[in-house]
Design a protein that fits this description.
With about 110 residues, this protein is mainly alpha-helical. The protein folds into two domains: about 5-55; about 80-110, no CATH class. The chain contains five helices and two strands. Strands 1-2 form a two-stranded antiparallel ribbon. Strand 1 (about 80) and strand 2 (about 90) form a beta hairpin. Helix 1 (about 5-20) crosses helix 3. The longest helix has 17 residues, at about 5-20. It is flat. It starts with a helix and ends with a helix.
Protein backbone atom coordinates (compact mmCIF):
# COMPACT_ATOMS: atom_id res chain seq x y z
CA UNK A 1 0.00 0.00 0.00
CA UNK A 2 1.39 3.38 -0.91
CA UNK A 3 1.94 5.98 1.76
CA UNK A 4 0.16 8.55 -0.39
CA UNK A 5 -3.01 6.43 -0.63
CA UNK A 6 -2.94 5.66 3.10
CA UNK A 7 -2.56 9.36 3.96
CA UNK A 8 -5.37 10.27 1.54
CA UNK A 9 -7.81 7.98 3.33
CA UNK A 10 -6.64 8.87 6.82
CA UNK A 11 -7.18 12.56 6.04
CA UNK A 12 -10.69 11.83 4.77
CA UNK A 13 -11.53 9.68 7.79
CA UNK A 14 -10.41 12.44 10.16
CA UNK A 15 -12.30 15.06 8.14
CA UNK A 16 -15.46 12.90 8.23
CA UNK A 17 -15.19 12.46 12.00
CA UNK A 18 -15.04 16.24 12.43
CA UNK A 19 -17.67 17.06 9.81
CA UNK A 20 -20.80 16.11 11.72
CA UNK A 21 -22.08 14.33 8.60
CA UNK A 22 -23.16 10.72 8.45
CA UNK A 23 -20.66 8.46 6.71
CA UNK A 24 -22.94 8.13 3.67
CA UNK A 25 -23.40 11.91 3.42
CA UNK A 26 -19.66 12.53 3.63
CA UNK A 27 -18.83 9.87 1.03
CA UNK A 28 -21.46 11.21 -1.37
CA UNK A 29 -20.30 14.81 -0.92
CA UNK A 30 -16.70 13.84 -1.69
CA UNK A 31 -17.52 11.13 -4.26
CA UNK A 32 -15.60 8.46 -2.33
CA UNK A 33 -15.87 4.68 -2.41
CA UNK A 34 -17.68 3.27 0.61
CA UNK A 35 -15.79 -0.02 0.45
CA UNK A 36 -12.36 1.65 0.32
CA UNK A 37 -13.33 4.04 3.11
CA UNK A 38 -14.45 1.09 5.27
CA UNK A 39 -11.24 -0.84 4.54
CA UNK A 40 -9.01 2.03 5.67
CA UNK A 41 -11.24 2.81 8.62
CA UNK A 42 -11.13 -0.82 9.84
CA UNK A 43 -7.41 -1.25 9.28
CA UNK A 44 -6.04 2.13 10.34
CA UNK A 45 -8.41 3.18 13.09
CA UNK A 46 -8.66 0.04 15.26
CA UNK A 47 -9.12 2.15 18.40
CA UNK A 48 -12.41 3.47 16.99
CA UNK A 49 -13.65 -0.08 16.46
CA UNK A 50 -12.54 -1.12 19.95
CA UNK A 51 -14.52 1.71 21.52
CA UNK A 52 -17.60 0.60 19.59
CA UNK A 53 -17.14 -3.01 20.75
CA UNK A 54 -16.65 -1.96 24.38
CA UNK A 55 -19.65 0.38 24.42
CA UNK A 56 -22.56 -0.62 26.58
CA UNK A 57 -26.05 -0.31 25.19
CA UNK A 58 -27.98 2.73 26.36
CA UNK A 59 -30.34 2.15 29.25
CA UNK A 60 -34.07 2.62 29.12
CA UNK A 61 -35.55 5.93 30.15
CA UNK A 62 -39.13 6.35 31.26
CA UNK A 63 -41.02 8.99 29.30
CA UNK A 64 -44.45 10.47 29.77
CA UNK A 65 -46.60 10.94 26.70
CA UNK A 66 -48.81 14.00 26.84
CA UNK A 67 -51.50 14.13 24.22
CA UNK A 68 -52.46 17.67 23.35
CA UNK A 69 -54.50 16.74 20.29
CA UNK A 70 -56.81 13.82 19.70
CA UNK A 71 -55.35 11.04 17.60
CA UNK A 72 -57.15 10.59 14.29
CA UNK A 73 -57.39 7.06 13.00
CA UNK A 74 -58.68 7.98 9.55
CA UNK A 75 -58.43 11.01 7.37
CA UNK A 76 -59.92 12.12 4.12
CA UNK A 77 -57.84 14.34 1.86
CA UNK A 78 -59.42 17.64 0.94
CA UNK A 79 -57.24 17.90 -2.19
CA UNK A 80 -55.42 15.32 -4.28
CA UNK A 81 -52.72 16.27 -6.80
CA UNK A 82 -51.65 13.83 -9.49
CA UNK A 83 -48.64 14.44 -11.71
CA UNK A 84 -47.98 13.20 -15.24
CA UNK A 85 -45.14 11.05 -13.84
CA UNK A 86 -47.57 9.18 -11.60
CA UNK A 87 -46.95 10.90 -8.28
CA UNK A 88 -49.99 11.41 -6.08
CA UNK A 89 -50.02 13.97 -3.28
CA UNK A 90 -52.93 14.07 -0.84
CA UNK A 91 -53.44 17.19 1.24
CA UNK A 92 -55.58 17.73 4.29
CA UNK A 93 -57.06 21.05 5.31
CA UNK A 94 -54.50 23.22 7.04
CA UNK A 95 -51.57 21.83 5.00
CA UNK A 96 -48.25 23.69 5.05
CA UNK A 97 -48.02 25.65 1.78
CA UNK A 98 -44.25 26.14 2.09
CA UNK A 99 -43.72 22.42 2.51
CA UNK A 100 -45.95 21.74 -0.50
CA UNK A 101 -43.82 24.08 -2.64
CA UNK A 102 -40.67 22.19 -1.59
CA UNK A 103 -42.29 18.84 -2.35
CA UNK A 104 -43.44 20.03 -5.77
CA UNK A 105 -39.91 21.22 -6.63
CA UNK A 106 -38.55 17.78 -5.77
CA UNK A 107 -41.27 16.06 -7.79
CA UNK A 108 -40.65 18.32 -10.80
CA UNK A 109 -36.92 17.58 -10.66
CA UNK A 110 -37.46 13.81 -10.53
Amino acid sequence: MSNHKRNFWIQHIKAWQQSGLSRAEYLKAHQLSASQFSYYYRNHFPEALQVAKDSKPAGLVQVQVIEDQPVRTTHAPCLTLSTPKGYRIELESGFDADLLQKVLRVVEAA
